[in-house]
Structures are given as structure tokens and as C-alpha cells.
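Module 6 notes. Inverse folding takes a fixed backbone as the condition and produces residue identities as the prediction. Think of it as a translation problem where the source language is geometry and the target language is the twenty amino acids. Below is one complete input and output pair. Work through it position by position during the lab.
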């Protein structure tokens, strides 16, 4: 543990974060997460090729801004229908029965999704069920 403590303190200094004196607290936090870390280590290695980042060209947007007061283009009903059409993706743990009426505000009516990747399927056949440690 002494080596890991020194590595954590050195890494935080290298990042410019400092606070190497907090290494004991970081080690304690890792210990709290030990069951999850061990569960990930125990997973089989997928046969698939690893993901490789490839460069892509960045193009300027071809639209025009209508100003801050203009409504954002959004079709929450269509977004809900698309989400319901692909249950095989397991992308959502909950979907509303219907789209609520838009209220006031800049993002009013804009569909959003919150991704909680703690229990996501990594690849078909490779998943881990995490249980809270506290």
C-alpha cells in the first residue's frame, strides 16, 4: 500500500492537483469500492476488437442562430417513440407514458436522457451487476 500511496500522491502532484496528503483518504475510498473493482477484474475479456479512436474532420454548423429567445427545435414525442422502438438496446430503465406539456424556460420541451452507466451492458454476454457497498 505504501507504493500505491506514493503513486497517488505523485500523480496528483504531476497533474497539478497537489494535496498528496489526501492519499490515505483516496486509498480508503478505493477500499470502499473494492467489491466493484474486483467484479470488473473478474469479467471475461471480450473477443471483439478494441475501440480505436479515429480522426475526423470538424465542420462548421450549417444552420443559423435565431437568437436566444427562439425555441430550440425539438420533438419530444418523436424522441419518446424512437426510444420505445429499440428496447433491445436497453438504453433506458424508465420512459414516461406520455410527454409532459412544455413549461416555460430556455430548454422547455427539449427531450433529454440521463445515462447511468453503472449497470450498462459492456458487450453482449459481458455484464456486471453492481451492488451498493453502503
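Target side of the pair, the amino acids:
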Amino acid at each position: 500500500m505504501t507504493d500505491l500511496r506514493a503513486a497517488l500522491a505523485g500523480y496528483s502532484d504531476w497533474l497539478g492537483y497537489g494535496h498528496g496528503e489526501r492519499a490515505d483518504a483516496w486509498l480508503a475510498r478505493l477500499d470502499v469500492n473494492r467489491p466493484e473493482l474486483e467484479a470488473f477484474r473478474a469479467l471475461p475479456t471480450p473477443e471483439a476488437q478494441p475501440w480505436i479512436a479515429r480522426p475526423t474532420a470538424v465542420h462548421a454548423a450549417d444552420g443559423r442562430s435565431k437568437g436566444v429567445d427562439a425555441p430550440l427545435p425539438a420533438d419530444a414525442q418523436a424522441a419518446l417513440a424512437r426510444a420505445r422502438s429499440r428496447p433491445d438496446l436497453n438504453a433506458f430503465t424508465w420512459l414516461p407514458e406520455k410527454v409532459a406539456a412544455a413549461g416555460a424556460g430556455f430548454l422547455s420541451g427539449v427531450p433529454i436522457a440521463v445515462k447511468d452507466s453503472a449497470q450498462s451492458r459492456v458487450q453482449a454476454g459481458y455484464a456486471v451487476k453492481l451492488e451498493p457497498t453502503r
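Reference fact for the lab report: The two ends are 23 Å apart (CA to CA).
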